[in-house]
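#struct-queue
[09:14] JT: dropping the first one here, sequence first, then the structure tokens:
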Amino acid sequence: MRQGDALLIVDVQNDFCPGGALAVPGGDEVVPILNRWIEEAQRHNIPIYVTRDWHPARHVSFKERGGPWPPHCVQGTPGAAFHPGLRLPSNVEILSKGYDPDEDHYSAFGGTGLKEKLKQAGIKRLWIGGLTQDYCVRETSLDALREGFEIHVIVHGTRAVNVNPDDGRRALEDIRRAGAILEGGHDIAVGK
């Protein structure tokens, strides 16, 4: 990591972890990996952005309104809280998405002002991890590439919900084909 970089952690919330309303297999396994990236970002004074689904009780993505998902990450509920093991520093910037009852945003760039914040901060390169590989991480990575950022996906710091078998693998292929770099190891890339 170097100046001009930012770490973006996507939706590591209780409802996406085991026992949650929309549990991702192994969702909690990303926490220690992302904690190491958080520590490294802090060591190098790299800004950290964290997204969260922040849905109202009758969100358009919920099955009761014709969406594909059970109710999850409802504002102010324990399921919407970040995983308790995720060590977020006090200066982290939290970006809420999906808060409009009639709009759904998988991407961290959807209604959050993230593009403007990154440009103002002089960010050129994003390191992205979190949940889920095949939805929010995929859409965030693709949007970031469209906006001209260099993207590194921390593959071991993501997990897929895999509604269909191999959705996660296909998502990573989409991201790579679009121009992102897939970081496959557990190690933190410093000074690349």
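[09:21] JT: and here's the second one, same format:
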Amino acid sequence: MIVDILEAKANLSKLIDMAYHGEEIVIAKNNLPLVDLVVHKPKLKRTLGLLAGQIDVPDNFIDEDPDVGEMFYGR
């Protein structure tokens, strides 16, 4: 179903209910489809530590490189 923006504005509650029950709703402006009205799908919770044990961070990771320091600050 394609609905003009003004009609969508006037019938938003009805259109939301229709989309919730599986109807495909496209909101258009000047007969140009702009957006689809779809049911919200919650994102999955992010899992922390997903790469734990798979990445090796060297002990000197945070140490300053003397050559890079010289480029920024001189001798």
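[09:30] RK: nice, looked through the second one.
[09:31] RK: The longest strand covers residues 32-37.
[09:31] JT: good to know. The beta strands are 2-4, 25-29, 32-37.
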